[in-house]
Write a structure and sequence with these properties.
245 residues; alpha/beta; Rossmann fold; 2 domains; four-stranded parallel β-sheet; 12 helices; 8 strands; 12% strand
Length: 245
């Protein structure tokens, strides 16, 4: 399978090791992984702020860069969800819009497409899963708490393949961390308060790490942790799954 590696701009700028871990794990699983050069933003911040015209140009660019790949995989639930859920509307009438049906969050890809059942990884720590809003309600990485359905969590299923790990989840299992992209800029006080509440909820599990599929949420909570000197850290789930490779 020929995989196009989609590394969102903030991952590239702030968390390049998350992109490297994604590449290492996918290649270790035997896939031909290509990172198209000169990637730009997928357009999510512009579209969310009401500038859909600017997002349209970026969506066209994304379509061109990832043409010809069997699947497009990225370590960011929110960016993947934006492409999957919005490109069809943004590029309406343009017959070449092909990426929404081929883009996957890396957790989604490993769990649903590859059906990974074993990993050579070891991570001897207790970790608390952060279920991000986009991941839960647009990519269905876990069951939304507001629905009366049996609980399922794809991040947990994959993490439990890792040797030595103890996986827990907070009491308010999928409450928002307060980041929300533009929301954190427009309502910084409320966003920061939500972030503190969420980190404390994770800390109540006794975990050493908060993990999840969205670096933006983890970035927001790490900012709270650094400011308040809380005794916990954040780590992307793919870094755990690729540990010791």
């Amino acid at each position: 399978m020929r995989v196009g590696l989609f590394i969102p701009c903030y991952v590239n700028a702030i968390y390049p090791h998350v992109g490297i871990a994604t590449y290492q794990l996918l290649t270790a699983l035997g896939h031909d992984v290509v990172y198209p050069l000169n990637q730009t933003c997928c357009g999510q911040p512009m579209a969310n702020a009401g500038y859909q015209y600017q997002a349209k140009n970026l969506a066209r660019r994304f379509e061109e860069l990832f043409e010809g790949f069997d699947v497009i995989v990225g370590p960011s639930a929110s960016c993947v969800a934006f492409v999957k859920e919005n490109y069809g509307h943004i590029l309406a009438g343009e017959h070449r819009c092909q990426t929404p049906g081929r883009v996957r969050d890396v957790i989604e890809f490993l769990h649903d497409d590859l059906k990974v059942s074993s990993l050579p990884s070891r991570f001897p720590y207790r970790v608390s899963i952060h279920n991000s809003c986009h991941g839960v309600r647009e990519l269905h990485l876990s069951t939304p708490s507001e629905r009366n359905l049996p609980y399922m969590n794809k991040i947990r299923n994959l993490l439990e393949l890792v040797e030595g790990i103890e996986v827990v989840e907070p009491e308010r299992i999928d409450e928002c961390c307060g980041f929300g992209g533009m929301y954190a800029i427009e309502e910084p006080e409320v966003s920061a308060c939500m972030g503190r509440d969420k980190v404390k909820d994770h800390m109540s599990t006794g975990a050493a790490y908060i993990t999840g599929s969205d670096s933006s949420c983890l970035m927001h909570m790490q900012g709270v942790i650094d400011r308040e000197h809380y005794p916990i850290q954040t780590i992307h789930a793919i870094e755990i799954l690729a540990a010791n490779l």
